[in-house]
Amino acid sequence: MKKVTSFHRFMNRRPSANCRYQPTCYEHAANCYTHAFLIAPALAGTALLHRLSADDWHRLTAWVYGLGLSALFLISTVFHVVTWKRSHMREVEHCFHMCDRVVIYVFIAASYAPWLNLRELGPVACHMRWLVWLMAAGGIFYVFNYHEKYKLLELASYLTMGFLPASVVASMNSTEGLEELACGGLLYCVGVVFFKSDGVIPFAHAIWHVLVALAAGVHYYAIWRYLYRSPPDRNACGS
C-alpha cells in the first residue's frame, strides 16, 4: 500500500468526462521545463537556417518554419506556467490554452513549409503548399468555436493534417530526408499515446513533450541537412 501511495503522489486520478486533468506540482514543473529549455535552441536553429539560405525564398521559408517551431515551445511553456500559477488567472489560462491548441496547427503547417517550398513538386502536389495552411486555418476556426467540446475530433484533425501532406512529400523526385521524416512522424504518433494518458501514466504530458521535442529535432536535422546545407532543388512551382 505504501508503494501505491508513494507512486501516486506524482500523478492525480483521471478526470471525469469533459473535465481537464489537474497535474500534480511535480507534473506541472516537468510540463514547463520540458519545453522551456527548447525555446532558445529553436530560435538559434532558425537563425542558422537563415544564414544558410540561398535566396529570399529560402530565407522566408526558414523564418516561417523557425518561428512556428519556436512558437510551439514558447506558447506551450507560457500556458503551463500560467496553469501552474492559475489561482487568479482563469481567463488568462483559458486564453493560453486556446493559443496552445492553435499553435499546434500552425506548427504542423510550418513544419511542412520547407519540404513543400524548396523541393521540386508536380503540378498537382504543388497545391499542397497552400492547402496545408487552409487546413491550419480550419483547425484554428475549430479552436475558437468549439474549444474542448469534441476532443476526439480535435485529435483526428491534428493527425489528418499531420499525415495528409506526407503523401505529397513522399512522392517527390528526391527521397533524401524521407527516413528522418518517417522517424519523426513515428515519434509523434508514440507521443499521442502519452498525450491521452494523463492520470494513467505519471508525467504522461511531460513525456509527450519530450517525444515532440525529439521528433522536431529529427525533422530539423533533415531540413538542415537536405534542404539548407546541401544545394537546394529549384521548385517546379516557382517562387
Automatic annotation (TrEMBL):
<dbReference type="GO" id="GO:0016020">
    <property type="term" value="C:membrane"/>
</dbReference>
<dbReference type="GO" id="GO:0012505">
    <property type="term" value="C:endomembrane system"/>
</dbReference>
<keyword id="KW-0472">Membrane</keyword>
<feature type="binding site">
    <location>
        <position position="209"/>
    </location>
    <ligand>
        <name>Zn(2+)</name>
    </ligand>
</feature>
<dbReference type="GO" id="GO:0046872">
    <property type="term" value="F:metal ion binding"/>
</dbReference>
<keyword id="KW-0862">Zinc</keyword>
<keyword id="KW-0812">Transmembrane</keyword>
<dbReference type="GO" id="GO:0140911">
    <property type="term" value="F:pore-forming activity"/>
</dbReference>
<keyword id="KW-1133">Transmembrane helix</keyword>
<feature type="transmembrane region" description="Helical">
    <location>
        <begin position="127"/>
        <end position="145"/>
    </location>
</feature>
<dbReference type="InterPro" id="IPR004254">
    <property type="entry name" value="AdipoR/HlyIII-related"/>
</dbReference>
<feature type="transmembrane region" description="Helical">
    <location>
        <begin position="152"/>
        <end position="172"/>
    </location>
</feature>
<comment type="similarity">
    <text>Belongs to the ADIPOR family.</text>
</comment>
<feature type="transmembrane region" description="Helical">
    <location>
        <begin position="95"/>
        <end position="115"/>
    </location>
</feature>
<feature type="transmembrane region" description="Helical">
    <location>
        <begin position="62"/>
        <end position="83"/>
    </location>
</feature>
<feature type="transmembrane region" description="Helical">
    <location>
        <begin position="30"/>
        <end position="50"/>
    </location>
</feature>
<protein>
    <submittedName>
        <fullName>Monocyte to macrophage differentiation-associated</fullName>
    </submittedName>
</protein>
<keyword id="KW-0479">Metal-binding</keyword>
<dbReference type="Pfam" id="PF03006">
    <property type="entry name" value="HlyIII"/>
</dbReference>
<dbReference type="InterPro" id="IPR005744">
    <property type="entry name" value="Hy-lIII"/>
</dbReference>
<feature type="binding site">
    <location>
        <position position="205"/>
    </location>
    <ligand>
        <name>Zn(2+)</name>
    </ligand>
</feature>
<feature type="binding site">
    <location>
        <position position="80"/>
    </location>
    <ligand>
        <name>Zn(2+)</name>
    </ligand>
</feature>
<feature type="transmembrane region" description="Helical">
    <location>
        <begin position="206"/>
        <end position="224"/>
    </location>
</feature>
